[in-house]
Structure formats: structure tokens, C-alpha cells
């Protein structure tokens, strides 16, 4: 009999399954506490659950983990983890030090189907979706490797388009924010999207986590060149969805903007960006292109980067130039997925 991965279940799902097995509803809270607060790796460790129930759990469920295949640490202490999945595929996660806190960048797919031309993950193509447990176990794997390191924030910005795996991402967030799970505040979780408008609209109503939109151009022709998804969901479509986000959340929206020399770094894009966002508050992370073998693009000249930033700042848009973290170990934005192919070969 194939066992169910217990980490694939939200507490509500688990409670329903346990009820069908004849176990009391409160057992779900106990099990969640053991899995995500006490980090139990075996049902026999769950000593406040009866022996007969522990035996039943062992028969029905497994407690999954991820194997760390490789680990690289950059000069700025950014750490890239490569995890081996059960089917031989690999994914990567990045632990980024932020003072005394750390942000974990989590992957949601093996590869990506969107084909953004500046992103190595997209250039290599799509293999499959990640399950809920495969997302959660990235955090658990990092925690096990460095238990003294507090992971304060989670960003779904690793390999893959999170909203193309929407239901599993939402279940993972449910576990992360559960009071009996990891107990993260939703305000410490950010989900990034290339602009899948139907899922943005769902997210507005279904989650309190932050939203970041990878925009990367202020004109449709340039954005379509860089991001084929723009041929389906245009900049106007995205802006209409973002306005709804602002109306319902009463907060600002974050835009990610990968700057590429000669394509989207001109002051004209900055002027148009101000026009696009004049109806709602936003902040912008400018990300100078991080070079990799999959694309021939170049990082813009420093004066173009700073001129772009200055124009936005002068028009009351919060704008930061993101310093590349872990670039020399291929852990920076757009560089993930290049170490090993998806079939498990070198």
C-alpha cells in the first residue's frame, strides 16, 4: 500500500483523514505540533499520542524529508542548497542573511514553463510541479542543516512560477502560518508572480501573504520580448488586477524589475512606469541583470540604473536597487537551476 505523505496535508485535511480512520479531531493539532514545532521524524516520537494510534499513523502515512545534494556558501554568506527529490529531479533554495535574520527563497516547480528569457530556470524548461511537502521540506532541510539560524521570512521566488502551482503553494502557506505549524505571520511571507492574472485575483481574496509582481518592463513590446506570458496577460491586465489588490488590502504592491542593458533600462521606461502606477502606492526592487550561461544579456551601466531609480524616487515611488546576493555561486535572481539537469544527470 502506498502511504500518504503526511506533510502534504493541511491541518484541516489531516483532521478529516484522521476522522475517517477513527482518531479524535484534536490529534491533528498534536501531530502538527510534533512535525513543525518539534520536528519529529518518526511517529514513535509523538509520545502524547497512544501507541495504537501511532501504529495506525505509521501504517497510513510517511514523514518525508529532502536530501541535501550540495551546499554552496558565497562571500556574503548567502547559501544555496540543492535538494534531491525522490524521482531524481533536483531543486534549489537560497538562504539569504539579512542582519540577524534570514530569508529563505523557496522553489515551487522543477523548472518553469513561462520561458522568461533572462531567467535560467525558464530557459531550461519545465519538468513538473512540486508537492506541498517538497516546498515545506526546503525549510525543514535548511533548519536541520543549520538549526541555530533563524529563518524569519519566506519568499516563494525560487525555481518556478508559484501561481502556476497555486493550490499547492496555498496549502504550503497554510502550514507555514498555522498556529500549530510553523506559526509564521502572513506578513513575513511573499509570493512572486510573473503576472498570472486569474491567480492574482484569487490570491487577493484567499491569502494575507504579500504579493510581488515581476514586471521587468513598462511597455508591452519590451515585456513580451522578455516574458512571453505578457502575450496572454498584458501590462494593463496586470495593473487592473493590482488596483484591485490595493483596494482590498489598503497597502502597497511590490514590483520586481530586472534591468537589462538596452532593453528596459532607459528613462522612457521609468517615465511610463510612473504613469502605470499613479493610482496606487508601490515599491520597486530594481535588480540589475545577473549574468549566466543561458542568456547573452548584459547588466546596465551604473548611471542608467541610478538615473532610473532617481526618476522613480522623485515621483514618490519607493525604489531600491537590490544588491546581488550569492552571484558567484549562481544563487542570485535568475540564476537558479543551472547546476544539474532535471533528469538527475550531471
Verbal overview:
This protein is of the alpha/beta class and 346 residues long. The chain has 2 domains: 4-62, DNA polymerase, domain 1 (Orthogonal Bundle), CATH 1.10.150; 69-329, TIM Barrel. 34% of the residues lie in helices and 21% in strands. It is built from 11 helices and 14 strands. It has helices spanning 11-20, 27-36, 51-60, 120-124, 132-145, 166-177, 197-206, 220-226, 235-249, 267-276, 302-314, and strands spanning 4-5, 61-62, 67-73, 79-84, 90-98, 101-105, 109-111, 126-129, 151-156, 189-193, 210-214, 253-259, 282-288, 318-321. A 10-stranded mixed β-sheet has the order 3-4-5-6-9-10-11-12-13-14. A two-stranded parallel sheet has the order 1-2. Strands 7-8 form a two-stranded antiparallel ribbon. Strand 3 and strand 4 form a beta hairpin. The chain is globular. Mean pLDDT is 92; it is low at 340-346.
Amino acid at each position: 500500500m502506498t502511504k500518504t505523505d503526511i506533510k502534504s496535508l493541511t491541518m484541516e485535511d489531516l483532521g478529516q483523514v484522521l476522522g475517517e480512520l477513527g482518531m479524535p479531531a484534536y490529534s491533528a493539532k498534536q501531530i502538527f505540533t510534533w512535525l513543525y514545532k518539534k520536528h519529529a521524524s518518526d511517529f514513535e516520537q509523538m509520545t502524547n499520542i497512544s501507541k495504537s494510534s501511532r501504529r495506525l499513523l505509521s501504517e497510513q502515512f510517511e514523514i518525508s524529508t529532502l536530501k541535501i545534494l550540495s551546499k554552496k556558501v558565497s562571500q556574503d554568506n548567502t547559501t544555496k542548497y540543492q535538494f534531491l527529490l525522490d524521482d531524481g529531479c533536483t531543486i534549489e533554495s537560497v538562504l539569504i542573511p539579512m542582519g540577524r535574520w534570514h530569508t529563505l527563497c523557496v522553489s515551487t516547480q522543477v523548472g518553469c514553463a513561462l520561458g522568461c528569457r533572462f531567467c535560467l530556470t525558464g530557459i531550461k524548461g519545465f519538468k513538473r510541479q512540486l508537492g506541498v511537502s517538497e516546498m515545506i521540506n526546503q525549510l525543514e532541510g535548511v533548519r536541520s542543516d543549520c538549526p541555530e539560524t533563524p529563518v524569519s521570512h519566506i519568499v516563494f521566488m525560487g525555481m518556478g512560477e508559484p501561481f502556476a502551482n497555486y493550490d499547492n503553494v496555498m496549502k504550503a502557506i497554510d502550514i507555514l502560518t498555522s498556529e500549530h505549524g510553523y506559526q509564521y505571520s502572513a506578513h513575513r511571507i511573499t509570493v512572486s508572480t510573473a503576472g498570472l492574472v486569474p491567480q492574482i485575483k484569487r490570491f487577493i481574496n484567499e491569502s494575507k501573504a504579500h504579493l510581488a509582481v515581476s514586471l521587468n518592463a513598462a511597455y508591452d513590446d519590451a515585456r513580451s520580448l522578455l516574458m512571453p506570458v505578457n502575450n496572454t496577460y498584458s501590462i494593463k491586465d496586470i495593473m487592473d488586477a493590482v488596483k484591485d489588490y490595493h483596494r482590498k488590502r489598503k497597502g502597497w504592491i511590490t514590483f520586481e524589475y530586472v534591468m537589462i542593458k538596452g532593453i528596459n533600462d532607459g528613462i522612457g521606461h521609468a517615465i511610463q512606469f510612473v504613469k502605470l502606477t499613479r493610482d496606487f502606492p508601490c515599491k520597486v526592487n530594481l535588480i540589475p541583470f545577473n549574468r549566466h550561461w543561458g542568456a547573452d544579456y548584459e547588466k546596465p551601466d551604473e548611471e542608467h540604473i541610478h538615473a532610473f531609480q532617481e526618476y522613480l524616487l522623485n515621483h514618490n515611488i519607493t525604489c531600491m536597487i537590490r544588491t546581488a546576493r550569492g552571484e558567484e555561486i549562481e544563487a542570485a535572481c535568475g540564476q537558479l537551476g543551472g547546476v544539474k539537469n532535471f533528469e538527475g544527470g550531471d
